[in-house]
Amino acid sequence: MIQCEDHGLCISTAMEVADRICTEKRLKFTDLRKDMLRMIWDGHAPQKAYGLLSKLQVKNHSAKPATVYRSLDFLLENGFIHKVKSLNAFVGCSHPSKHDECYFLICDSCKEISECCDSNITSAIKATTKRNQFFVKNTTLEIAGHCNACSKRTE
Ligand SMILES: [Zn+2]
Ligand SMILES: [Zn+2]
Ligand SMILES: [Zn+2]
User: Fold this and answer.
1) How far is CA 11 from CA 117, 122, 135, 154, in A?
2) Fold (CATH) for 98-154
3) Which of 74, 101, 139, 145 could bridge to 122 as Cys pair (CB 3.0-4.6 Å)?
4) Tell me, what DSSP letter sits at residue 51?
5) pTM of the model
6) Which bound ligand lies closest to the C-alpha atom of 10?
7) Average pLDDT across the chain, whole number
8) What letter would DSSP give residue 25?
């Protein structure tokens, strides 16, 4: 489990930051996009697209998969959420305005994801790709294992 003291605060902060970025960039933060972001922030565990669709349909019966994918694209493009490729699921970003050098730690046990930032990893990737004369477009690093709380529980 991620030790956030008050998850309500995680949600409200994420919503405020997204709202501010949208205002700055003159993007439309529609009710649908807000609902989607709030649903993804339901916890620190990743959410699958079909799960989001069924949640959305509780409120909006006419919601279709395309509706969900379009708003996911918007949230991804603006860095409010991340796609966790190994799980094919989505998780909220806790620092979308300065998102850089972030890697994911995925707990197999509680399924929660945290982002860690480490410039050492970034420079190692730069050095390695340079040595191989490879031009990087984007980097995904997802590390699976057990979070501190879960590993204590199984000891
Ligand atoms: Zn939280
Ligand atoms: Zn992030
Ligand atoms: Zn865990």
Assistant:
1) 21, 29, 36, 29
2) Dna Ligase; domain 1 (3.30.1490)
3) 101
4) H
5) 0.87
6) 1
7) 91
8) T
